[in-house]
């Protein structure tokens, strides 16, 4: 199964990293590589179908996306392997653990989607944190509303980092992405299944994430008997770019709880 990917080494235990919706493997590497530095893991960053440099070669459904990832894992990794992801990538990673637990050694879920339908997400209704005047000036006007909802650490420097990530990597296929996100099968068919995954899990959320929130993620912890849940203040949906030092610390804790994986 063809998916564009980059990897940090040819040997070592693998951690396969899945991107946020519409983002590329280059953006995922910018988000997660600092957290994984020095671990000796073989970091693999994938472009999903219709994302980055991977063509849209499957139907625009989340189940087809998940099946494509599973087929790639079957072909390219020695199962089970570590899976990491942000937002939609984390949603798919959790789905792989439900449907193909034989493929998954542990899960790092950063700002994961839990309930894919926007109207049913439990989002924080607190007022956003204060921000300096003009903190969004460098962003295109079309992104102002999104970034205002997404960011908890609201500074021009964070905005610049997020914009660089959004613009990195291959172009993707916006038509495919729109069809996926607006289609009737955006949700995985087993999204609400009461399935337990007993490997080491770390769920990391942003207190000011008004895209997927943090409450649904806490309720989902019943599926992870070996799971750690963290909610970080002054962090939103782009948490890896907002709080990289805390993300690294929590990633190291996750790896310490994974047998046979050295932590930096």
From TrEMBL:
<feature type="domain" description="AB hydrolase-1">
    <location>
        <begin position="30"/>
        <end position="245"/>
    </location>
</feature>
<dbReference type="InterPro" id="IPR000073">
    <property type="entry name" value="AB_hydrolase_1"/>
</dbReference>
<dbReference type="InterPro" id="IPR029058">
    <property type="entry name" value="AB_hydrolase_fold"/>
</dbReference>
<protein>
    <submittedName>
        <fullName>Alpha/beta hydrolase</fullName>
    </submittedName>
</protein>
<dbReference type="GO" id="GO:0016787">
    <property type="term" value="F:hydrolase activity"/>
</dbReference>
<dbReference type="InterPro" id="IPR050266">
    <property type="entry name" value="AB_hydrolase_sf"/>
</dbReference>
<dbReference type="InterPro" id="IPR000639">
    <property type="entry name" value="Epox_hydrolase-like"/>
</dbReference>
<keyword id="KW-0378">Hydrolase</keyword>
<dbReference type="Pfam" id="PF12697">
    <property type="entry name" value="Abhydrolase_6"/>
</dbReference>
């Amino acid at each position: 199964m063809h998916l564009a990917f980059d990897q940090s080494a040819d040997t070592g235990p693998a951690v396969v990293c899945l991107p946020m919706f519409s983002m590329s493997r280059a953006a995922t590497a910018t988000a997660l590589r600092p957290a994984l530095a020095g671990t000796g893991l073989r970091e693999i960053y994938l472009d999903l179908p219709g994302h980055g440099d991977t063509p849209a070669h499957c139907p625009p459904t989340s189940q087809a996306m998940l099946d494509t990832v599973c087929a790639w894992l079957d072909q390219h990794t020695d199962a089970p392997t570590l899976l990491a992801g942000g937002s939609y990538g984390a949603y798919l990673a959790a789905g792989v653990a439900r449907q193909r637990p034989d493929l998954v050694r542990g899960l790092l879920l950063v700002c994961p989607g839990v309930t894919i339908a926007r109207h049913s997400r439990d989002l924080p209704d607190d007022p956003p944190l204060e921000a300096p005047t003009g903190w969004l000036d460098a962003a295109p006007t079309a992104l102002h509303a999104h970034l205002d909802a997404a960011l908890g650490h609201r500074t021009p420097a964070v905005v610049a980092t997020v914009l660089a990530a959004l613009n990195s990597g291959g172009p993707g296929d916006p038509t495919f992405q729109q069809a996926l996100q607006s289609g009737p099968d955006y949700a995985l068919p087993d999204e609400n299944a009461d399935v337990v995954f007993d490997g080491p899990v770390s769920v990391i959320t942003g207190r000011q994430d008004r895209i997927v929130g943090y409450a649904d993620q806490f309720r989902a912890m019943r599926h992870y008997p070996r799971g750690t849940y963290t909610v970080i203040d002054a962090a939103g949906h782009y948490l890896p770019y907002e709080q990289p030092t805390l993300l690294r610390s929590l990633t190291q804790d996750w790896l310490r709880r994974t047998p046979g994986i050295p932590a930096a």
